[in-house]
Amino acid sequence: MATVRKAHTIWNGDLFHGTGEVTLYSSQLGTYEVTWKARAEESGGRTSPEELIAAAHSACFSMAFSNALAEAGKTAERIETSAEVSFVPGTGITGSHLRVTAVVPGLTAEEFTDIAESAKTGCPVSQALSGISITMDATLET
After folding, report:
1. pLDDT of 73-123, one tens digit each?
2. For residues 12 and 2, what is the distance between their CA atoms, to the nearest angstrom?
3. pLDDT band with cut points at 50, 70 and 90 for residue 53
4. Most C-beta atoms within 10 A of its C-beta, which of 23, 101, 114, 125?
5. In what order do the strands lie in the sheet with 7-12?
């Protein structure tokens, strides 16, 4: 059975000078202001669709990586993932770059890289973003 999550946005005004508010309905975690300037220039305390995608990508990858490690009989002590989603006005979203560092006892650097690459392609958000370039830097910490 599918799980459905909901968010809602209200936008006022034109694209370049207007403002919007996106509300996370499913989690009830809050309402966040969005603007074109936050999307194409500086955030100024507001969010953007790309930041929300970056949050989803980093969380999804961490979960997929944790699962892939478990399937290999390993458990991470810690996984830290960041995602940088690039947006070019007039072109759109052009890429997502993942940076992952993790502490995984008993794992070689080669095994770590292989499992991270598998998680990158297997992550449902990566699959949803398959039309853009997805790159990754992965570091095994000791």
Report:
1. 999 999 999 999 999 999 999 999 999 999 999 999 999 999 999 999 999
2. 32
3. very high
4. 125
5. 7-12, 19-24, 30-35
Structure tokens given for 89:
């006005």
Give the count of beta carbons closer than 10 Å to the beta carbon of residue 73. 8
Task: Check residue 8 and give its pLDDT.
Answer: 97
Q: Which is nearest to 82 in space by CA: 23, 29, 135? A: 135
Kindly state the tokens that stand for 35. Answer: 């603007």
Name residues whose C-beta falls within 8 Å of residue 123's C-beta, 6 or more positions apart in sequence. 57, 60, 61, 63, 64
Q: Which residue has the tokens 């830290």?
A: 80
